[in-house]
């Protein structure tokens, strides 16, 4: 529990900071991405790009260390684990990690977030290792816009991965779409239709200031309210009750019961008061908020302490200090020193 009375249940583990995509909102490091933002940068108060170096492999937590930390976290109340990145499927032998995590008693929900590009050859092994749930990122159904958003000509591959995930019984299937003005905001309705056609859950996410170029601007955010209004004027949507208080998405169903819409609006409607998340970076730092400016070196504590009790007490101490809320849009807001690809979404 933190000092604001929130009970943390959800641990998100980034297993690599590397990625095979260069999304506009995360790693906008291609010329095309820079061209999109160029001209806007002059007005940015905080426009110095993050100078990042990829974490050397020797500094990554090993799978055994990750499993140890998960075991300890579960003993302290964590129930949900999400494996993410960077692109988690780029880390060698991910099914072995999944197998270690899925056998830990007390993990009630184990999921993975991926851009889907490297999914097909690993899908069956992930399933066999005990993974039941996958979230894909898919921001556009138009091949050109997809390429502008991700820096990669990969739409067909990701669609194929989604179908394969369904065939293999991954359930429920979720898709994340970050909406950016003047790029993919024309596709909101089409993505919602796709959710119904494919009977999956489509999460529309507001663009957050977590890109490596620090190019985020509020004017590029399509507020959740606007996304909802547009969808309501096109579809007859029924609200779906949240399954738990800490749910970040407001959910809506279509009348025929196929597919679902979720709207995640951390910028325009922050949900910090219910946040139950803790994050672990690939190099073994705990983060208590996406926007934390401080990290906590749990790797060092784990490597020093052979018994689990001191690690558990360190974990409790770190969680106690979780920030009350983020300060996006306020004068004192400071962008975190690492981008989303390093923190783990
Ligand atoms: N590479 C994997 C993927 O893209 O699904 C997993 C890691 S990615 C950082 C996790 C999620 O964070 C993705 O769904 C992505 O859309 C989201 N994300 C990344 N940068 C974001 C930003 N600046 N604002 C909102 N969501 C972001
Ligand atoms: Fe890579 Fe995911 Fe970031 Fe896109 S959102 S650059 S796929 S880590």
Output the structural class: alpha/beta
Distance between the termini: 22 Å
Unreliable stretches:
none
> Which strand order do you get reading across the main beta sheet?
7-8-9-6-5-4-3-2-1-10-11-12
What is the count of helical runs? 11
Strand percentage lies at 15-25%
What does this protein look like?
The chain is of the alpha/beta class. The protein has a single domain, classed as TIM Barrel (Alpha-Beta Barrel), CATH 3.20.20.70. 30% of the residues lie in helices and 16% in strands. It has eleven helices and twelve strands. A twelve-stranded mixed sheet has the order 7-8-9-6-5-4-3-2-1-10-11-12. Strand 11 and strand 12 form a beta hairpin. Helix 3 runs parallel beside helix 4. The longest helix has 13 residues. It is globular. 44% of the residues are buried. The model has no long low-confidence stretch (mean pLDDT 93). The site of iron/sulfur cluster (SF4) has 13 residues, from helix 11.
Layout of helices and strands, plus pairs?
Elements: E1 10-14, H1 31-37, H2 63-75, E2 80-84, H3 94-102, E3 109-114, H4 120-128, E4 133-137, H5 143-150, H6 155-167, E5 174-179, H7 188-198, E6 201-206, H8 224-234, E7 238-240, E8 250-253, E9 260-264, E10 277-280, E11 285-287, E12 296-297, H9 298-304, H10 308-320, H11 340-343
Parallel strand pairs: 1-2, 1-10, 2-3, 3-4, 4-5, 5-6, 6-9
Antiparallel strand pairs: 7-8, 8-9, 10-11, 11-12
Helix pairs in contact: 2-3, 2-10, 3-4
Give a concise summary.
With 345 residues, this protein is α/β, with parallel strands linked by helices. The protein has eleven helices and twelve strands.
